[in-house]
Amino acid sequence: MKFPEIDDYISWFEELCRNAGYTQGNNKVFYLFVKGLPTDVMEAIFVSPILADYQGLKDKAIKVT
Q: Strand, helix or coil at 19?
């Protein structure tokens, strides 16, 4: 996944969450966001420090792409 693709993924993902009624604090949001990432990005975001909130996770995913 490259830079513009991660922005598209985040926009698409957040729209789906809004439509489903999920908030960013919901544990399912964290899990589903990670599940939709390519393996290389997923592995990179779980390098220390591991983040516990969606916003931090999203920022780190952008940073590693």
A: helix
Q: Report the domain count for the chain.
A: 1
- Tell me how far apart the alpha carbons of residues 16 and 3 are, in angstroms, rounded to a whole number: 20
Q: What is the pLDDT of residue 12?
A: 94
Tokens at residue 60, please? 């780190």
Model confidence over 10-23: pLDDT tens digits?
999 999 999 989 88
Longest dimension (CA), the chain: 32
**Range of 36's domain?**
3-64
Which residues, including other chains, have CB under 8 Å from residue 45's CB and lie 6 or more apart? 34, 37, 51, 57, 60, 61, 64
The Cα 19–Cα 15 span in angstroms is 6
